[in-house]
Specification:
Length: 110
């Protein structure tokens, strides 16, 4: 079985509204793809993605696994969004280790 990975540029991510981004990611993951977003999602978008994914869990879709590394501290040391977000089907992707600048994950066949 092949595993498809969608690598989405920051320009594409920034051209979408919040709900459009969330739906785009969720639809890709529900199709069995690993979705990698350059520029990532805000913490609010991540929470909404998790919330929607939980509502759509059934016997074919077991949920999502999500990991990312945060942006460098910005204005007033607040973190607004991640620099990279990786989202995949929970039964396919498993984050093993994560650092401030790297993510190690195992991608396995279903």
């Amino acid at each position: 079985m092949n595993i498809k990975m969608d690598l989405i540029s920051e320009d594409k991510v920034n051209s979408m509204g919040s709900m459009e981004k969330i739906r785009f990611v969720l639809d890709g993951v529900k199709s069995g793809n690993i979705v990698v977003l350059e520029g990532g999602l805000t913490s609010e978008e991540q929470m909404k993605l998790i919330e929607l994914a939980m509502l759509e869990v059934d016997e074919d879709f077991t949920g999502i696994e999500m990991s990312g590394y945060p942006s460098k501290k910005g204005f007033f040391n607040l973190r607004k969004k991640t620099r990279l977000t990786v989202v995949g089907p929970a039964k396919t992707m498993h984050t093993i280790k994560k650092g401030k600048d790297w993510i190690s994950a195992v991608i396995s066949e279903i």
